[in-house]
Model the fold of this input.
Amino acid sequence: MSKRSLHIILVCLMFLKILGFFTLSESIAITRLLKIILRLLSTGGVVLLLGMLLNKRKSKVLLFENILSPVAYLFYLILGVCSVFWSTNPSYSILQLFMTSESLFFVVGLLGILQLTRDKESIPGIELSMHLSKSIFALCLVFLIGSFINPDKFMRLTHGGEVARLGGFMMNPNEMGMLSMVGFAALLFQWNYERCWKMMLVFAPVFLYALILTGSRSSLGGGLLIIGLYLLISGNKKIQLAAVIGGFLAFPYVVSNIIVKQGDLQEVLSMTGRIPFWKALLTEGLSQSPYFGFGFMRIAWTDYFSSVHTYAAKMTHNTFIQVLMNLGLVGGVIVLFQMLFTFRNVIISTSRPLQLFFAFIYIPIFINSITEFGIFGESNFGILFYQLLIFLFVVQIVPRRKIERLRAIN
Done:
């Protein structure tokens, strides 16, 4: 198999994997069936490819190092499995656990393939960024075309039907905005090392236009931080000046159409009602089951958390509060250490490109985690991207003779 053919296959598998997080039908049964098929195709595809490559190159071995971060993530999932016994909806907890765990096989398989096939002179993280940017570009393009052809399906009406946002019934607009910014972040990372003019001129407008149509404030903030990071590391005065001028010209439109929608400043200050909701969750909800929570991806004794002080909802709109409600203070401590171990792997890494790749991708998914499903929430592609970042510094392909030499010494 040629390098180009493998690249196309991996882009397609990444496309299918991300597509598997969308609600592709209004029928729950059909949506679940499609998700199962897409997950089996994508994850099964990368695992099969990895097995074939390892069998072909028997001199190489898949190895895990810096394992504290994935081990802590495993403890998080194990606690989730245990929580099924006290979950307020065991079948839903099991379903969420399965989807979160299944994507780990996709991540390990994908990173193993990239390690096996990477040229020694290539920059670490470049090929992964290409797969992400191209697959996300294709998804954003489909939604942008769909918003013109069939706006009822691809656009979601909010604010009493006055505001139309990209995503439709298939995807939360804020999640769609985060997805476009992950694609943009991967593109900027690649641009920093390889001046891919064609990709930049074609991909960047699609990512940015998709962001605008989603009307996502959190994703806009993530996008600005990504651009700020690039400007900081580029050191190009002309680009920095152009960015300042462009930001100044776009500021009035952004404020009036994305940040302050319909002139409702109070909505912005309360983060669309999230702040009182979070307060109610922590003061009224957590106290009912403080140590071990209500079960994996459950936030109350019933399907919805409700309070006289705020609206009712099935999820917390904050991934860290979600952990506290799901798995209590014990789960919160495990997640805290898991993130610390992940940051440790980034800091001690000797690969500057991988550190930079982590920063670019982590920014949009972390910002999204503050106000939406996030990296520890209900099954979404933010979890997939975070798992990629966890194992980015863990999965290694090493010569078999090196392992045998170490065993002989011991």
User: Anything to note?
Assistant: The beta strands are 60-64, 155-158, 163-166, 305-307, 310-313, 395-399. The mean pLDDT is 87. Residues 319-348 form the longest helix (30 residues).
